[in-house]
Structures are given as C-alpha cells and as structure tokens.
Write a structure and sequence with these properties.
Layout (H helix, E strand, L loop, with lengths): L17 E7 L6 E7 L8 E9 L2 E10 L3 E6 L6 E6 L3 E6 L8 E4 L14
Antiparallel strand pairs: 1-2, 2-3, 3-4, 5-6, 6-7, 7-8
Subcellular location: Cytoplasm, Cytosol; Peroxisome matrix
GO molecular function, one term: peroxisome matrix targeting signal-2 binding
GO cellular component, one term: cytosol
C-alpha cells in the first residue's frame, strides 16, 4: 500500500486487487469504501476496502475478504457503519465496518448470470 504526497491527488495501491466501485460515506467525511477483485474480476477473490483520508494521505481503516470478486458497493442510508456489496457469485453481502469479522448477512438470490437480449423487429 502506498500513498502519493503533495497535491490533491492521492493514491492507494493494494497489490493484487483492482477497484471496481467506490463510494464516499454520507456520514463520515473522508471515508471511502471500495469494492475490489483479483485478476481483473475474471477469477479469484474480492476485497472490501474502507479507507480514510487524513492530513498525511490515505489510511486503510479496515478490509474484508470475500471468496469471489466484489463489483459494487453502497453505504446504508440508516447506519454510518453498514454497507452492501455485490459479488460475482450472485450474492449480496451486508458488512459492518465497526466489526472486524466477516459479513453480517449474505443474500444469495441468483444462481446464474442474467444476460439481457434485445431483438430488432423488422
């Protein structure tokens, strides 16, 4: 993990992970959640990164690993510590940043990928 000094641009590098979605907390200024995956989301696991922007740069507050790639993240509208991620395995994970353990709940609703097809009528 490294951060760039000076200027407004700051970078957080997490080896072996590629970010897919990022969202700032609506409650805590400077707190950012990022959904990331290994191998560009083609194979491997995923990681939810919680990052704080501080005077000296970026600081990793907490990270959570998942067995498949994480591709989306959003903060709860009702609780400053709760987020939801979407995974390549078709599940949603409910996380609590105040706890270092895995997800609070996992919702597995899809058994296969959905492909939307559009047909042109002639």
């Amino acid at each position: 993990m490294s951060t760039a000094r000076g200027g407004a641009a700051r970078t957080l590098r997490v080896p072996g992970r590629h970010g897919y979605a990022a969202e700032f907390s609506p409650y805590l200024p400077g707190r950012l959640a990022c959904a990331a995956s290994q191998h560009y989301g083609i194979a491997g696991g995923g990681t939810l990164l919680i990052v704080d922007q501080i005077e000296s740069g970026l600081r990793l507050f907490r990270s959570f690993d998942w067995n498949d790639g994480l591709f989306d993240v959003t903060w709860s509208e009702n609780n400053e510590h709760v987020l939801v991620t979407g995974s390549g395995d078709g599940s949603l994970q409910l996380w609590d940043t105040a706890k270092a353990a895995g997800p609070l709940q996992v919702y597995k609703e899809h058994t296969q990928e959905y492909v939307q097809r559009s047909y042109i009528m002639t």
